[in-house]
Amino acid sequence: MSVPHAGTVVVPALVVTHGALGAALLDSARAIAGAFDGVEAMSNEGLSRDALVAKVGERIAAFGPAGGVVFADVAGGSCAQAALAAAAREAPGPVRVLTGVNLAMVLDYLNNRARLEPAALADHVLARGRSSVQLLEAPATTPGEGGEA
Amino acid sequence: MSAALVRVDDRLLHGQVLLAWGCALEPDRYLVIDDTLAASPFERALVQSCGGETDVAIVPLAEGAAALAAERARAGTAVVLLRGLPEAFALARAVSAAGGSLERLNLGGAHHAPGKERVHDFVYLDAADRDALAGLRELGVRVVVQDVPASTPFDAPPAWGARVA
Q1: Is the pLDDT score of B165 beyond 80?
Q2: Any CB–CB contact under 8 A between B66 and chain A?
Q3: Could you tell me where the DSSP H helices lie in A1-149?
Q4: pLDDT band at A1, cuts 50/70/90?
Q5: How far apart are CA B29 and CA B56, in angstroms?
Q6: What is the Cα–Cα distance from B110 to B100, expressed in whole angstroms?
Q7: CB B85 within 8 A of CB B107
Q8: Angle CA(B88)–CA(B93)–CA(B97) in degrees, nearest 5?
């Protein structure tokens, strides 16, 4: 099902991760973006391969014909495999699976889920996620130089 | 060279294997012995896509002993994955029947399922699992319980195994 939110309809999402990472990401996102709904976190803790696929499949089926987005942590991990398998088999609508989920991706999803369809939203979030991973280098000048306090 | 690890894990190739064991052992390839994956082109492609630059071979259980023998003759190392203890016992019997032996088995993940009883954080057993453990013991296979390289391994207690009459 698409989720009514603040008078509009948004693309639903599921965050599937090892341990409590997904729940922590959503908590951190709330600290920045404020309260939201339409996104659920799920852990693979204690679940076999088949049980995880079944559990993810239940959530994906609830997305409805409008589809949704699934975030997973590690590419190649059990969460990503379960998401892809369930999306291919259980989804009644278009479901996109994104791996390497980070806070920037969750925030980008929240900011754009009311205006983009699942496929375009996934592309947008993917670009944001990739650009958010950077090797930062100190500027050439050091603090105190050039009139800095 | 040989199999660096022969592991029972109901998640087969997944994060713990790829990122923890994979980084610790740096295998040249993964060999997944599993009837379900071998029979499904979709599942096979899904799992094979997870290996990154490391090759992933998938064979049915009936071909497991031959694949393991062939693996031992190859250069480099492999991580071998099986879905459950009954499958591992079947493989050990086939290896034994061919004149070889499966000396050590890593029990890394046998999660909860209906009818299974918890004996450890990540080990749940039913009658078929206990029968397989007893059978593995009879074949001289040392079953070592360890989910990731950083955790402390221990031998599966004899009490976990019990042959089904």
Answers
A1: no
A2: no
A3: 21-33, 49-61, 78-89, 103-112, 118-132
A4: low
A5: 6
A6: 26
A7: yes
A8: 150
Q: Which residue of A has its CA nearest to B110?
A: A48
Predicted confidence band at A140 (pLDDT cuts at 50, 70, 90)?
confident
Point out the residue among B14, B83, B113 whose CB comes nearest to the CB of A81.
B14
Residue A3 parent element (H or E): strand A3-5
Strands A8-10 and B2-9: unpaired
pLDDT in tens, A9-50: 899 999 999 999 999 999 999 999 999 999 999 999 999 999
For the record, the structure tokens of B110 come out as 């046998």
Using alpha carbons only, give the angle B89, B93, B94 rounded to the nearest 5 degrees: 115
Distance from CA of B98 to the nearest CA of A (A): 31
State the DSSP string of A46-60: T--HHHHHHHHHHHH
A52 touching chain B per CB within 8 A: yes
All residues of chain B having their beta carbon less than 8 Å from the beta carbon of residue A81 are: 14, 46-47, 50
Rounded-to-integer distance, Cα B147 and Cα A133, Å: 30
ipTM over 0.85: no
Please tell me chain B's helix, strand, coil percentages from 3-state DSSP, rounded to the nearest 5.
40, 25, 35
pLDDT of residue A119: 96
What is the overall mean pLDDT for chain A?
A: 91
Q: What is the pLDDT confidence band of residue A97, given thresholds at 50, 70 and 90?
A: very high
Cβ of residue A49 closer than 8 Å to a chain B Cβ:
yes
Kindly provide the b/e burial profile for residues A120-140, where b requires at least 16 CB atoms within 10 angstroms of the residue's own CB: ebbebbbebbeeeeeeeeeee
Contact present, A46 and A19 (Cβ < 8 Å): no
Helices (H), chain B: 15, 22-25, 35-39, 41-48, 64-72, 85-97, 127-138
